[in-house]
Amino acid sequence: MSETSPKLRAELDGIPTYKPGRPAAAGGPVAFKLSSNENPYPPLPGVMEKAVAAAGNFNRYPDMACTGLMNELADRFGVPVSHLATGTGSVGVAQQLLQATSGPGDEVIYAWRSFEAYPIITQISGATSVPVPLTSGDVHDLDAMADAVTDRTRLIFVCNPNNPTGTVVHREELERFLDRIPSDVLVVLDEAYREFIRDAEVPDGLEIYRSRPNVAVLRTFSKAYGLAGLRVGFAVAHEPVAAALRKTAVPFGVSQLAQDAAVASLQAEDELLGRVGALVAERARVYEGLVKQGWTVPPTQANFVWLRLGERTADFAAACEEAGVVVRPFPGEGVRVTIGESEANDIFLHAADAFRSRL
């Protein structure tokens, strides 16, 4: 009998690999990791205690319905529990959205460059990616995205603020865009960095969703709340979409430790706002420092900055690493740099200045 390999789905051939930000090397010259948009602060008050308590019950399955977390989210955001769904980070919920809406023959529209998971989860679902280039200012081209809609379009991602550029779309242009989208096409407002926004013209996606049944909002506890290692995110959507997300969720996917930590984080909002405010102040300092050095930096409303470097991307990333910080290069395009501790930001600014002086 001839040996053959098990038959696997052809859609997985050539699938792009998600590339996480590199960590700082243990015992090496790199002292700070600015490559993954993590919050540099430790867990919020009360979170560690809740996590430790939950750890004592690892022999038990978590609450599959995430009841405590769902109730806390409903109270915090003023939405019905039936409009909520949880998952393993917002990217996990995004994949559930693909499973619920799109398959072979369907199309998914997103800006590019944007969150690198979009093409991966789209290809896994068997659907076809329709990437739409950003404008020259590294902003979503919403008119072009609306023009790209066909009768095969099932899902549109709008990453606001956009990862990795930090740029935003404003209320008026977003509303105009949504008015052009057919009511049977789901538009997902991916707001992983919502807490860092200070531009009053950027709408809260939850305000948009309330009057538009084809809009869903993604949020995460990984960034501002500092729970990146626990993998918990959620979606807010109208009942048919939220119910489909709950159906496609991995059973027991969100651990009890993650659920309890997320609830405790929501209850520590005053401390959260203080920490986010400090990071926003550091963001302004880093942005202004780069502009003063002569860099062209798109205005950012996230917890990172973007430098479009083209062919110099790899050299710049190497120079930062040599100086003591690891950043996130996108080969041939640019570098995304997380806003971290003041000391880390100082090292990065010094490295950027030294690199520019050699150009």
From TrEMBL:
The similarity comment for this entry is: Belongs to the class-II pyridoxal-phosphate-dependent aminotransferase family.
Q: Name one GO biological process term.
A: L-histidine biosynthetic process
Residues with the N6-(pyridoxal phosphate)lysine modification: K223
Which Pfam families does the protein's record reference? Aminotran_1_2
Q: Does the keyword Ribonucleoprotein apply?
A: no
What name appears for this protein in its UniProt entry?
Aromatic amino acid aminotransferase
* Keyword rRNA processing found: no
